[in-house]
Structure formats: C-alpha cells, structure tokens
Design brief:
136 residues, 8 strands, mainly beta, Immunoglobulin-like, eight-stranded antiparallel sheet
Length: 136
C-alpha cells in the first residue's frame, strides 16, 4: 500500500512541476556561476540556461541540470535587461544550434536580467538573475 501512496505522491509532484513550468525557476545558482562555455548560468524552469554576453550579441545555451546540452529543444525566447532603469528586450533566435540575440550597445558590467525560453513543446520557461560580464 505504501508503494501506491508513494507512486501517487510522485505523480502529483510531477503534475505540479509541469503546471508550474511557466513560473520562475525555484532552484538557484551561486552568484555568477560559470557555464561550460564561459557564460553565466541561470535557472530556467527545469533547465539551466547559460548566457554568454559578447560584444554585439548574447548567446544562450540550454542544459539539463546534469549538464547535457538541450539547446536543440529550444524554439526561441527573449532576455529582458534592465539598463539604467529601462527594460531592453533582446529577442533570441536559433542560429547554428545556439540561441542568439543581437545587442546594439555594450552592456554594463552587471545588469538585472529575466530570461524566457520557449521550447518546441510550446512551453515557456523563465528565470531571473544578475548578468555579469567583463568588457573585452
């Protein structure tokens, strides 16, 4: 009987995770955790998103928490940056297997960011944090 109860609890938990997927991610990463490509890691729904701020663009890759690259599951998204109190929306599109967003100007060294990734199953996953990078 305990097995059935545990199975029901697991099913309810899985359902709750699926229902709350559009909400902000609940697990967190340390300040400015570095990803495998030198970018910063954000918790985005059930995924980790690595944002790499380059001179004229943002590159975003999607990973499982275990580290497997799932960028191919992404259909697009956006990053909203708060610069001098004003939101700047950067649209992300797939280019060469990476989500890319064009930047018109250099970013401050640290900027608040909200990232939303739409996956091929139509779900939107969001996360937020502070995007820090060094000027090159």
């Amino acid at each position: 009987m305990r097995f059935v109860r545990d199975l029901v609890a697991a099913a309810l938990l899985a359902g709750a995770v699926a229902v709350s997927a559009p909400a902000m991610a609940q697990h967190s990463h340390g300040d400015h955790e570095e990803g495998p490509n030198g970018g910063q890691v954000f918790a985005v729904g059930p995924y980790d998103a690595e944002i790499l701020a380059l001179e004229d663009k943002l590159e975003v890759r999607l990973f499982e928490h275990e580290g497997n690259d799932l960028t191919g599951e992404a259909a697009g998204g956006d990053v909203v940056l708060l610069i001098d109190g004003k939101p700047l929306k950067v649209t992300l599109v797939i280019e060469g297997g990476v989500l890319v967003g064009k930047l018109d100007d250099h970013l401050p060294e640290e900027v608040d960011a909200v990232i939303r990734i739409k996956t091929k199953d139509g779900k939107i996953h969001a996360g937020k944090g502070e995007l820090g990078h060094e000027h090159h």
